[in-house]
Specification:
By secondary structure, the protein is α+β, with helices and mostly antiparallel strands. The protein has 3 domains: 4-166, Beta-Lactamase, CATH 3.30.450; 249-311; 319-462, Histidine kinase-like ATPase, C-terminal domain (Heat Shock Protein 90, 2-Layer Sandwich). The chain has helices at residues 4-56, 63-75, 113-122, 161-209, 227-275, 281-311, 324-342, 360-377, 430-440, and strands spanning 92-97, 103-107, 130-132, 141-147, 153-159, 319-323, 345-350, 355-359, 383-390, 394-401, 444-449, 455-462. The strands form 3 sheets. A 5-stranded antiparallel sheet has the order 2-1-5-4-3. Strand 11 (444-449) and strand 12 form a beta hairpin. Helix 5 runs antiparallel to helix 6 (281-311). The longest helix has 53 residues, at 4-56. The radius of gyration is 47 Å and the shape is rod-shaped.
């Protein structure tokens, strides 16, 4: 029901069904008007003949018999007349009324009084056929009249039951044929569209998996020289260019990292050699500070390159199964002495082992960044609460505290590079790195200030690689 093939076939079927219905309505009106035109022509001709016979026949005892037999002969000339179960002629009637409106001559089924009453009520116009409803008959009569010289009127009526029967048969047969054609056409459109969109779905599924583990995969192509085939070829050419660009990016970043790390490592080594000598305390202090700054600069360089690659969807991942519960407990044990020294408490609520597919080194750095943020920005006597939960498809890590919360000035830009609060001494890359790594794994990050006080950061991590988790409101800071 959610397939585009279903919607396309539905709209195509609807358009075809409405079009054919319109054609049938026009055809039905044409057939009905043609049948009525033929009936009116027959009535007009026959009533004129009967009027001429009645006018020429002497008004003696044989008049009713002569005129009645002529009328009876005329009634037998009706084409396609449906035979009645009785011997009476209930399809045609002949009626002659005097100038005073009395019944003078009747040929037909019954005694003619209901027909005469209907004629008097209708006030028919001579030589103009019209419809007449007679009591006791389910179908109307088409009636034509002529006025004689003696003031009397002759009426010839033809039942419309034969016309109605023809039109009903036409409607029934068209409805059966229409349903058959619509169902057949809908099936053809649905299966043809579904087959065409099946190739598009294959391309979509293949394209969605490209980049999760490698860029060397390509979407499937076909030998058909159509739009879908051209789409697949175009996507593969685009992927070739992307792979080439990413390869160049890796080459550039690796060269840049090597060119920068080498002198930094050399400087750090020389400073350590100097520091190992016999120096006074006031002389060694600047050297130790310089080594710390070099370490911070190296960390800043590595993190900046990782964030840049992740933002460009070019971060190389070495996926293995990692137990989040075990990793978080190890990291808490590692950071707990420093936090205790500062007066911070850490509480962990975990649902037990939570295995995920992730790059172990990057995931380790993500947890370290989160704990570093708490250690560096929280005042003493605060509590950090870490909650780890899991569903069938995703793992959820929530880190919250009762500190001052996120600074208002960083607003919606907290996951951007080099964005930090006024009192922060870092480089503004911690949360940017966390968001970049989580997004590279197909997860999502949200952040907000807690209503009661403090910051809250939530990470949703897919249990299987390639399963994209979309947050309800991605990367937003909420001050309440």
């Amino acid at each position: 029901m959610h397939s585009a093939a279903w919607r396309i076939s539905l709209w195509a079927t609807l358009a075809f069904a409405l079009g054919t219905l319109l054609v049938f309505v026009m055809l039905h009106r044409f057939v009905a008007s043609d049948i009525q035109r033929r009936s009116d022509a027959w009535l007009t001709g026959e009533v004129a003949v009967l009027g001429d016979v009645a006018g020429r026949t002497p008004k003696d005892r044989l008049y009713p018999r002569v005129v009645g037999e002529v009328a009876e002969l005329a009634s037998r000339e009706v084409p396609y007349k449906l035979r009645s179960s009785s011997n009476e002629n209930d399809s045609v009637f002949f009626l002659q009324a005097g100038d005073d409106g009395t019944l003078k001559l009747w040929v037909g089924s019954g005694n003619g009084l209901p027909n005469l009453a209907a004629i008097r009520a209708r006030k028919l116009i001579p030589d103009v056929p019209c419809d007449l409803n007679v009591q006791g008959f389910n179908q109307p009569f088409r009636v034509a009249s002529v006025r004689l010289d003696d003031g009397s009127h002759i009426y010839l009526g033809l039942s419309e039951k034969d016309e109605i029967r023809v039109l009903n048969n036409l409607r029934f047969r068209f409805l059966c044929l229409w349903l058959l054609i619509v169902l057949f056409g809908s099936s053809i459109v649905f299966f043809a569209t579904r087959r065409m969109l099946g190739h598009v779905r294959e391309i979509t599924e293949a394209a969605s998996g490209i980049g999760q583990s490698a860029l060397s995969s390509r979407v499937p192509t076909s030998k058909r020289n159509d739009e879908v085939g051209h789409l697949a070829l175009t996507l593969n050419r685009m992927l070739d260019r992307i792979e080439s660009s990413v390869h160049q990016l890796h080459t550039i970043t690796e060269s840049l990292a090597h060119d920068l790390r080498s002198p930094l490592t050399a400087i750090r080594g020389k400073l350590e050699i100097v520091l190992s000598g016999d120096l006074k305390a006031e002389q060694s202090e600047p050297i130790i500070s310089a080594i710390d700054e070099l370490d911070r600069l190296t960390e800043f360089l590595n993190t900046s390159l990782d964030v840049a690659e992740a933002k460009a969807d070019a971060l190389r991942l070495s996926l293995t199964e990692v137990d989040l519960d075990e990793l978080i407990r190890v990291m808490i044990d590692l950071y707990e002495p420093c936090m205790s020294e500062k007066g911070l408490r850490v509480n962990l609520r975990s649902a037990g082992p939570v295995p995920v597919l992730a790059d172990a080194a990057l995931l380790h750095r993500v947890i370290a960044n989160l704990l570093d943020n708490e250690l560096n920005h929280l005042p003493a006597s605060c509590t950090v609460s870490i909650t780890l939960g899991a569903t069938e498809n995703a793992a959820t890590l929530i880190v919250e505290d009762d500190g001052p919360g996120f600074a208002a000035e960083i607003g919606l830009h907290m996951f951007e590079q080099r964005v930090k609060g006024r009192d922060s001494k870092g480089h503004g890359l911690g949360l940017a790195f966390v968001e970049a790594v989580v997004r590279a794994h197909g997860g999502s990050v949200t952040a907000s200030n807690r209503p009661e006080r403090g910051a809250l950061l939530s990470i949703t991590w897919p249990r299987e690689t390639g399963e994209k988790i979309e947050p309800p409101h991605s990367l937003t800071l909420v001050n309440r």
